[in-house]
């Protein structure tokens, strides 16, 4: 989806059409279907200024309407990604912070499964495994009843201090993940003639 910004600076509609044709040609040069891609023109600045003056519904402001049109095009043209909701819950912890009076929040992207308020989860990795309960789920400052695979969420957890959890750990359905400190692997290292290492890892390598 293409948004042609600063349309308020152009008085000639034919000029906007010419710009759209040029962008279509550019997209086709990179193997995108230029003729099929939706185009929406508008003014992000004027739409923002209109909204800052007070909430706007569709039909209240010309430039805000263009943003509504843009989001409708995104919803209609871009397919929703498939979410891996059939498997057990798993989320890697990206950040941790405390909310005064509420508790500790772990943020990250849910890799798989579904999580609901009240669910019991385990905090796995780096330290001894801990069990806790989910007391809140938020996404983009909105409270949710559940989060699912693909959502970037903040999870409020009960009875866990900020020092007990850190980036690199995972939150998981109890009994589904076990941490390991050692593992066996086969590694192929690119040689000098393949654009890889020029020096050995250690003496005798």
TrEMBL record:
Residues 103-172 form the Translation elongation factor EFTu-like domain. Keywords: Chloroplast, Elongation factor, GTP-binding, Nucleotide-binding, Plastid, Protein biosynthesis. Signal peptide: none annotated. Residues 1-79 form the Tr-type G domain. Residues 176-205 form the Translation elongation factor EFTu/EF1A C-terminal domain. PANTHER family: ELONGATION FACTOR TU, MITOCHONDRIAL, ELONGATION FACTOR TU-RELATED. GO terms for molecular function: GTP binding; GTPase activity; translation elongation factor activity. The lineage of its organism: Eukaryota, Haptista, Haptophyta, Prymnesiophyceae, Isochrysidales. It holds the Pfam family GTP_EFTU. CDD domains: EFTU_II (cd03697). This is Elongation factor Tu. GO terms for cellular component: cytosol.
């Amino acid at each position: 989806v293409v948004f042609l910004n600063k349309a308020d600076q152009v008085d000639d509609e034919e000029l906007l059409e010419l710009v759209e044709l040029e962008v279509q040609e550019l997209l086709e040069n990179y193997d995108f279907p230029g003729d099929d891609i939706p185009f929406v023109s508008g003014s992000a600045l004027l739409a923002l200024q209109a909204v800052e003056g007070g909430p706007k519904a569709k039909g209240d402001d010309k430039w805000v309407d263009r943003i509504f049109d843009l989001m409708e095009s995104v919803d209609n043209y871009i397919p929703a990604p498939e979410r891996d909701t059939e498997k057990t819950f798993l989320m890697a912890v990206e950040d941790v912070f405390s909310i005064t009076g509420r508790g500790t929040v772990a943020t990250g992207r849910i890799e798989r499964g579904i999580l609901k308020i009240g669910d019991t989860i385990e905090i796995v990795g780096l330290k001894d495994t801990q069990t806790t309960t989910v007391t809140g789920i938020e996404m983009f400052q909105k409270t949710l009843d559940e989060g699912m695979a693909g959502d970037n969420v903040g999870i409020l957890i009960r009875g866990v201090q900020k020092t007990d959890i850190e980036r690199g750990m995972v939150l998981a359905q109890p009994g589904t993940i076990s941490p390991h400190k050692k593992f066996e692997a086969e590694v192929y290292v690119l040689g000098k003639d393949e654009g890889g290492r020029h020096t050995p890892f250690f003496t005798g390598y």
